[in-house]
Amino acid sequence: MTEKQPVISIRNVTKRFGHMVAVDNVSLDIREGEFFVLLGPSGCGKTTLLRMIAGFELPSEGQILIGGQDMAGVPPNQRPINMVFQSYAVFPHMSVADNVAYGLKIAGVAKPEIRTRVDEALELVSLGGLGQRMPDQLSGGQRQRVALARGLVMRPKVLLLDEPLSALDAKLRAQMQFELAELQDNVGITFVTVTHDQDEALSMACRIAVMNKGDVAQLADPADLYEHPANRFVADFVGSVNIFEGKLTVDEPEQAVVDCPELGRVYLNHGVTGAHETTVWVAIRPEKITMLPAGKAKAKDSPDGHNVAHGQIKGMSYLGDITIYDVKLESGRSIRVSRPNLSRWDQEDFSWDDKVSLQWHPTSPVVLLS
Amino acid sequence: MNLFKRPAIAPLEYTRRLWMRAWIAATLFFLYAPLLVLVAFSFNDSKRNIVWRGFTFKYYGKVIENDGLMAALGNSLTIAALATVISIVLGTLAAVMLWRFRFPFKAAVEGTMALPIVVPEICMGVAMLVFFAKLDWPTDLPWPLNLSAITIAHITFCFPFVAMVVRARLAGFNKEQEEAAKDLGATEWQAFRDVLLPHMKPGIIAGALLAFTLSLDDFVITFFTSGPNTITFPVKVYSMVRFSVTPEVNAASAILIFLTILLTTVALKLQDFTKATA
C-alpha cells in the first residue's frame, strides 16, 4: 500500500474567503486505491478541501495534483474525478437510468456501451431493474445509490463523497457504511469521503485526516487515531474521552507519572516525550476504566496509590450493549466510565449515588502534549 | 334513531359552517355570475340585448363576418404570441441573472425591473405614447411590422411577470444539481440545458400563460400605442360598446373567454404531461 504513488497530492493549499481562512496550508497525499476520510466538525474546512479537489473552488495558494497532473486551470468537467453530493443531486426530471447515463452521454460514448455500463453500475449498487423509475419514486437510500452509480459509471480515478450518509437514518447508515467499504474494495477506485461522523470515519476508512480550523490535526489509520491521538482535539473529537490536566513528575525511559490534581497520580509503564515538570494532559477512554464497589479497587501493575480514583455515581445511561456512568470524583470533576452489559443479570448492579472505585491499566492513559 | 342526526361540526370543519358557506357562495356568485350572463346573452335573439327573446347563434355568425373585429382578433393574437415568446426569453434570462450573479446595484436593477408591474397602466400608456412619438416610430409599415410598437409596449410589462415567476422557481433549485452535471463532464451550456432549464420549465410555462393573457386583454397601454390600422380586440370591443351593447359584443367576448380557457387548459395539460414523463 505505502509504495503506491499518490493519486491526489495536496501541496501547501490555502483557501481564503475574504478574511476567513477556510483551509490553512494543508499538505497531504491520498494513495491510489485507498478509502480516505476527511473528518472534522462543521466549519473545519473539510468540504472546502473536497470542493477544491473537485474544482468547484480554486485554492488561494498551493497546488493540487491528480494523477501527477497539476489541476490549476482545469475546470470541474475535465477532471478525472467524480463526486457524490451531500444532497445526492440526482436529476429529478430524468429516470434512474438516464441519471446514470448522463455523464457517458456527454462524453459521447456509443449507445449500446452506455446501456451495458449503466446496467453494470446499477447492478453494482444493487439497483438492478430499477432503471426506469423516477427519482421521486425512490427512497433516500436508493437515491444515494443512484448518485453513487452515476459517479462510478464514469470509472473515475477518484470518487469524492460529501457527507454521503448524513441524510440516512441510523440503521441504514450502519448498513451503508459496510456496503460503501465493500464497494470501494470491489471497484478499486480511490474514495475520498468527507464526514463529521467519527463512527462513519472509523468504520470505513483506510486512513483518516482529522481536520480542525482549516488544519490537519492528525493523519492516521483508524486504530492509531483512536488509541494514539496526537492531541486533545483529536482525542476528544474521535470517540469519547476523559481529559485531565497534570504535571509530569516522573519522566524515565521505561515509566512515567503524571500528577493530575483532579484525578490523582497516573502511572504509565512506558516513557513519554514530554519534558519533566511540564504541563501535560492525560486522556483515558471510558471503556478502559474498570469500576468496582468502593474500596475494592486495587490497581494491578501500578504502584500503590496510582491509577486509582474514588467517586460516586451521579448519572447512568443504559444503551443496551453498554451502560455509561457519570462518576463524580472526590475532586469534584466528573469522569465518564462505560461498562459492557455482559450478562442479562448484572451481578454488580451499580446504581445512582453508589460509592465506587475506579482503576485502569498503566497502558490505558495517553499523555498528550497539546 | 340516529338516522337523521349528523355528527357535530368539528372545530376545523369550516366548510360545514353557515357563515363560511355563505361567504363562499357570495364569492363564487360575484366572480362567475357576470361571466355566465355575458355568455348567456350572446345567444339572445334581440338587438338591444336587455330582455331575453329567444335562443340564436346568429350573432356568432355576425362576429365571424365582421372583418374589422376579426382583423383586431388577429392583431391581438399575433401581438400576444410575439410578446409572450420574447418575454419568456428576456424574463428567463433576467431571472437567471438575478439568481446567479452578484453585481453592483443589483437591488436597483431588481427594483426597476418590477417597475412596469407597479406603475399605473395609464402612466405607462402615456409614457409609451410620448416615447414612440419622440422616436418618430413609423406607423405606416406593412402588417405585421406595424404591430411592433404595441408589441414592444406589451413586452415591457409582460417580461417582469415572467422574470418574477421564474425567479421564484429558481429559489428552490439545488445548485448541487448543476455542479453534479458539470462534475459529470457537462459544459456550462449543457448544464443549463439539461438541468437548469428543465427545473425552470413549470415557471416558464406559468410565466408564458401570464404574459399571454396580460397581453391579450390589455386595453389601456394598447389604446395609447395603437394606430388606426392596428386596432386590437379589446380596443375594438370598446369602440363597439360605445355605440351599443349588442349580442355581437357578447359573442365576441365569449369567444375570447373560450380561447383563454382553452389555452390555459392546454398549457396546464402540457405541464402535467412534462411532469408525468420527466
Description:
The complex is a heterodimer of chains A (370) and B (278). Chain A is built from 8 helices and 20 strands. Chain A is an alpha+beta fold. Chain A folds into 2 domains: 6-236, Rossmann fold; 241-368, OB fold (Dihydrolipoamide Acetyltransferase, E2P), CATH 2.40.50. In chain A, the strands form 4 sheets. Chain A has a 6-stranded mixed β-sheet with strand order 6-7-8-3-9-10, with helices on both faces. In chain A, strands 13-12-11-14-20 form a 5-stranded antiparallel β-sheet. In chain A, strands 15-19-16-17-18 form a 5-stranded antiparallel β-sheet, with no helix packed on it. The radius of gyration of chain A is 25 Å and the shape is elongated. The two termini of chain A are 31 Å apart. The model of chain A has no long low-confidence stretch (mean pLDDT 90). Chain B is an all-alpha fold and 278 residues long. Chain B has 11 helices and no strands. Chain B is globular. The mean pLDDT of chain B is 88.
Concise description?
The complex is a heterodimer of chains A (370) and B (278). Chain A is α+β, with helices and mostly antiparallel strands and 370 residues long.
Mean pLDDT of chain B: 88
Number of strands of chain B: 0
- What is the count of DSSP helices of chain A, taking H or I runs of 4+ residues? 8
- Roughly how much helix do the residues of chain B carry, as a percent range? over 70%
On the 0-100 scale, what is the average pLDDT of chain A? 90
Helix content of chain A: 10-25%
- The span between the termini of chain A is 31 Å
Q: Which CATH class of the largest domain in chain B?
A: Mainly Alpha
Question: Looking at CATH, which topology of the largest domain in chain A would you report?
Answer: Rossmann fold
CATH superfamily label of the largest domain in chain B? MetI-like
What count of domains describes the coordinates of chain B?
A: 2
Strand portion of chain A: 25-35%
Would you tell me which CATH topology of the largest domain in chain B applies?
MetI-like fold
